[in-house]
Design a protein that fits this description.
This protein is α/β, with parallel strands linked by helices. The chain has a single domain, classed as Isochorismatase-like (Rossmann fold), CATH 3.40.50. About 30% of the residues lie in helices and about 20% in strands. A six-stranded parallel beta sheet has the order 3-2-1-4-5-6, sandwiched between helices. β1, α1 and β2 form a beta-alpha-beta unit. The longest helix has 17 residues. The N and C termini lie close together (about 10 Å).
Length: about 180
């Protein structure tokens, strides 16, 4: 498979890959946490090499939540290597576009499209896909660089596969990390 056709300046959005998704302190780590870090980091490095902007979205949970501002689970996961010039946008609901500053930043890139990785597949990733599409943006999801937790009726692998299918049906461009970055 050749590299996908992407808008030349589509920014990479890293959704909710926060310490609490990986450290196992309050909840189990997301499915395939080490692999998600490796693939997300590869996509981040690819974006930087290709002159694309990278932004991080951080979920601000309510007081007492492990993802609440100031809590140990709140920061962007350090292993992702966020650069100082890469903004972090806060949100308190699933859709990253709920933060007007984030929507303005994306619009300011002039790409008409976004590339997404992150967590959780069935919550904030899916909500941000819908939010982007509702704004008329093209969406590429890196199909093996988003993750979640098992739920009462499905394993994380099943949730991810189901959502990848739903994303494709909705017109999302799905691409694997390997197809995107090569190698």
């Amino acid at each position: 498979m050749s590299a996908p056709s992407l808008a030349a300046n589509a920014p990479l959005i890293v959704i909710d890959l926060q310490t609490g998704m990986f450290d196992g302190v309050h909840e189990p780590p997301i499915h395939d946490a080490p692999g998600i870090v490796e693939r997300a980091r590869a996509v981040i490095d690819w974006a930087r090499r290709n002159g694309r902007k990278v932004a991080f979205v951080r979920h601000d949970g309510p007081v007492g939540d492990p993802l609440a501002p100031g809590e140990s689970g709140w920061p962007v996961w350090p292993a992702l290597g966020q650069a100082e010039n890469e903004p972090t946008f806060a949100k308190s609901v699933g859709d990253a576009f709920s933060n007007p500053a984030f929507g303005d930043w994306v619009a300011g890139q002039g790409a008409g499209a976004v590339i997404l990785v992150g967590a959780q597949t069935d919550f904030c990733v899916a909500a941000t896909v819908k939010g982007a599409m509702a704004r008329g943006l093209g969406v590429t999801v890196i199909s093996d660089a988003h993750s979640t937790l098992d739920n009462a009726s499905e394993s994380a692998e099943q949730v991810i596969a189901r959502h990848n299918g739903e994303f494709a049906e909705a017109g999302v461009n799905l691409v694997t990390t390997k197809a995107l970055v090569g190698g």
